[in-house]
UniProtKB/TrEMBL annotation, chain A:
InterPro entries: Cys_rich_dom. This is (Fe-S)-binding protein. One of its GO terms (cellular component) is cytosol. Residues 7-88, 136-220 form the Cysteine-rich domain. GO terms for molecular function: oxidoreductase activity. Coiled coil: none annotated.
From TrEMBL, chain B:
Residues 301-330 form the 4Fe-4S ferredoxin-type domain. It comes from the Bacteria. This is LutB/LldF family L-lactate oxidation iron-sulfur protein. PANTHER family: LACTATE UTILIZATION PROTEIN B (PTHR47153). GO terms for biological process: lactate metabolic process. Coiled coil: none annotated. InterPro entries: 4Fe4S_Fe-S-bd, 4Fe4S_Fe_S_CS, FTHF_cligase-like_sf, Helical_ferredxn, LUD_dom, LutB/LldF, LutB_C, NagB/RpiA_transferase-like. One of its GO terms (molecular function) is 4 iron, 4 sulfur cluster binding. Pfam families: Fer4_8, LUD_dom, LutB_C. Keywords: 4Fe-4S, Electron transport, Iron, Iron-sulfur, Metal-binding, Repeat, Transport.
């Protein structure tokens, strides 16, 4: 009998669309940790855009679909703090009044985890086989930090990456200004926020900035690249998995095309 | 105050372009924000204290009518008089009548957000009663003719340099530059006003049901002088300020000072019960308490009830990256920052205040520091739901969201759409790894490049890989 946990990877829209390498890095890390990984085919989006735009009905319906899709698995793992937070914290809220769904939503929520915290806290992974030479700084994405309390897990694992020197930037826990549709609804305020973040990254002297959420990463990379910065931007999973062939976010390379 | 909340975006634009304002706002980060962190860190039971604070407030809100009755009875027992005001207009009328009864020409005022909420100063002025603000910050903005931009530091948006100019213009004499000298000058001017005033008007931080006392905290002692020197003291307070016991009040005071300014306790905490008694050395002859509802009793039992726990400490705005960029005036009404984004729509209507609940990334820092654990992002989301249900969002946003929702609920269609989107973006310059411009995404690409998709979607690539593997 196979005792390794059966894990559903919830890919998230942005990884699916923009950066599949994060998904593959997640699969690699999960398999290394001894999980059987499946990617449920009928998954779409966790429903956050609807939820945060006030469209509760659509968000609730999407929550029901996702719960039904994900409940057969031992665990659900998400390479994003904000989408994991949606499943873990907000689904039970959305479906809490619905007698048929409340219990099911809670059961899935309890088994749903953000990738890095799952590796560290559930699978008890203590180190990784990966190498990256240079100074790296880590941005705490808001939902991961505040809804899921992810703070030490990525740092602990990063410290086991060969050659990697982890430096803290100022205000690593302050929002980068992404905020889903916020960044296009209030571009000036959003830009000011990401500029503060860019300044903190610069002061840290890091050559690479990492985070666990592609939304924040694209925002930081987008601004850094527009300003002509050479700082590389990557999802933490890519570094932990040692999957560094793909060019960093916003850079082109020879790998594809 | 005529709200300009609808123009939040434009207001914020002007704020971002104003280097003096930005300099002033920068001080909050190194000042109050850092101080709150130190104070919270220095008190091992701080998190527990927050739970207690939340529970005290929840308990009061569950039994508000009982505590209000008990409080009123105690105030009257002590010789004070309680006036109920349903809304802002009633409260203004009551205060004006009381001023007239006292034959008041000038009144001193200590800081009161309720006075701002009901627009008291312009009303008194229009009726020939001259209000003089005695809190330094309030005094400054009164001279400048501006509304407050912060709960605790109403003039936090101004630099010392601006205050120097302002004082020089209004007080004449030499232009003072040093902070201490400016404070000294304000004191000197105000001292005279305390003695001239016929009525003193204060707010209250807490109303204690057990004793009928009002509690005010300041760092300048001005509330004490405002309520103690004139013949008549009028306190205006909203109904949710009530707490059951003196002990509860002091629990909340410990939270308030630490959360607001990082102090263990504010410099002056004044507890006052009724007017002067025979044996008292000083105090007002008459004490009136105006209890304001202004929509609050309707919030009890609603989705917004938790907002009534607010103790007006300002921590949420001190930690809000949006507030720190845009400043308080951008919010366009009395209450600003995250707490204002929840409260302002209550008072001026969501039509007027529609941008406020949307001007948040839901980063959650406000909730993280709120001493009474108000889930501010959740409450802002409630307003977004209200907007959505009443179709107050711009049509383009509504249709876009509806289309997205339609597709996202149909996995096969979704696969098709994401595949096409990736293909299109790759065509638009994806080979450079990023795009400088993207149709319909000017909000993003105005200041940021858009990273290009790597290639086929993950789902496509995964299918291929697993297909080849098995
Ligand atoms: S909402 Fe909370 S943090 Fe903000 S002013 Fe009120 S009590 Fe303070």
């Amino acid at each position: 009998m196979n005792t390794s946990p059966r894990v559903a990877l919830f890919v998230t829209c942005l990884v699916d669309l923009f950066r599949p390498s994060v998904g593959f890095a997640a699969v690699k890390l999960l398999e290394q940790a001894g999980c059987r990984v499946e990617v449920p085919e009928a998954q779409t989006c966790c429903g956050q855009p609807a939820f945060n735009s006030g469209d509760r009905a659509t968000a609730t319906e999407m929550a029901r679909r996702a719960v039904a899709l994900l409940e057969p698995y031992d665990h659900v793992v998400v390479p994003s703090g904000s989408c994991a937070g949606m499943l873990r914290v907000h689904y039970p809220e959305l479906l809490g009044e619905d007698p048929e769904w409340a219990g099911r939503a809670r059961a899935v929520a309890e088994r749903c985890h953000e990738l890095v915290s799952f590796l560290a806290d559930v699978m008890k992974v203590e180190g990784v086989e990966a190498a990256l030479e240079g100074r790296v700084t880590y941005h705490d994405s808001c939902s991961g930090l505040r809804e899921l309390k992810i703070r030490h897990q990525p740092r602990r694992l990063l410290e086991t990456v060969e050659g990697l020197e982890l430096v803290e930037m100022d205000d690593s826990e302050v929002c980068c200004g992404f905020g889903g549709t916020f960044c296009v609804k209030y571009p000036e305020i959003s830009t000011r926020m990401v500029d503060d973040k860019v300044a903190a990254i610069d002061r840290s002297g890091a050559a690479t900035v990492l985070a666990g959420d592609l939304g924040c990463l694209m925002n930081m990379a987008g601004r850094l690249k527009r300003l002509g910065s050479a700082v590389e931007v990557r999802h933490v999973a890519e570094v932990l998995a040692g999957e560094l062939d793909a060019p960093s976010i916003g850079e082109s390379g020879s790998r594809e095309a | 105050m005529q709200p300009t909340s609808h123009a939040f975006k434009q207001n914020a634009h002007e704020a971002l372009e104003n280097p003096v304002l930005q300099e002033a706002l920068g001080g909050i980060r190194t000042g109050w924000q850092a101080a709150r962190g130190r104070a919270a860190g220095a008190l091992p039971e701080f998190e527990q204290l927050r739970d207690t604070g939340r529970d005290i407030k929840n308990h009061v809100l569950a039994h508000l009518d009982l505590y209000l009755e008990a409080f009123t009875a105690k105030v009257e027992e002590a010789g004070g008089k309680v006036h109920w005001a349903r809304d802002a207009a009633e409260a203004r009328t009551i205060v004006l009548e009381l001023c007239r009864e006292a034959d008041a020409r000038t009144v001193t005022k200590s800081k009161s957000m309720i006075a701002e909420e009901i627009g008291l100063n312009p009303w008194l002025e229009a009726n020939d009663v001259k209000p003089v603000e005695t809190d330094l910050g309030e005094y400054i903005i009164q001279l400048a003719g501006q509304p407050p931009s912060h709960l605790v530091g109403p003039a936090v948006h101004m630099t010392k340099d601006e205050v120097s100019d302002l004082f020089h213009k209004h007080h004449g004499g030499e232009r003072l530059e040093e902070g201490g000298a400016l404070v000294g000058e304000a004191r000197r001017v105000l001292r005279q006003r305390y003695l001239e005033a016929d009525v003193g008007i204060t707010g209250a931080n807490f109303l204690v049901a057990e004793t009928g006392s009002i509690i005010t905290v300041t760092n300048e002692g001005n509330a004490e002088l405002t309520q103690g020197l004139p013949r008549t003291h009028i306190c205006i307070a909203s109904i949710e300020k009530i707490v059951p016991t003196m002990e509860d009040a002091f629990t909340l005071l410990r939270l308030l000072a630490r959360s607001a300014t990082g102090q263990e306790f504010s410099a002056y905490t004044t507890v006052m019960t009724g007017p002067k008694r025979e044996e008292d050395l000083d105090g007002p002859r008459e004490f009136h308490l105006v209890l304001l509802d202004n929509g609050r009793s309707k919030m009890v039992g609603s989705a917004f009830q938790e907002m009534l726990r607010c103790i007006r400490c300002g921590a949420c705005m001190n930690h809000c990256p949006v507030y720190l960029a845009a400043g308080g005036h951008a919010y366009g009404w009395v209450y600003v920052g995250p707490m204002g984004s929840v409260l302002t729509p209550q008072f001026v209507g969501i039509e007027e205040a529609h941008p406020l609940p949307n001007a948040s990334t839901f980063c959650g820092r406000c909730e993280e520091v709120c001493p009474v654990r108000i889930p501010l992002p959740k409450l802002m989301r409630h307003w977004r739901e209200e907007q959505f249900n009443r179709q107050l969002n711009p049509p383009a946003a509504r249709y876009g969201l509806a289309l997205w929702g339609f597709v996202a609920r149909r996995p096969r269609l979704y696969r098709l759409a994401t595949g096409m989107a990736v293909g299109a973006m790759r065509l638009l310059g994806g080979r450079q790894g990023r795009m400088r411009r993207l149709p319909l995404a000017g909000g993003w690409t105005g200041t940021r490049d858009m990273p290009a998709p790597q290639g086929p979607t993950f789902m496509q690539a995964w299918k291929k890989r697993r297909g080849a593997g098995s």
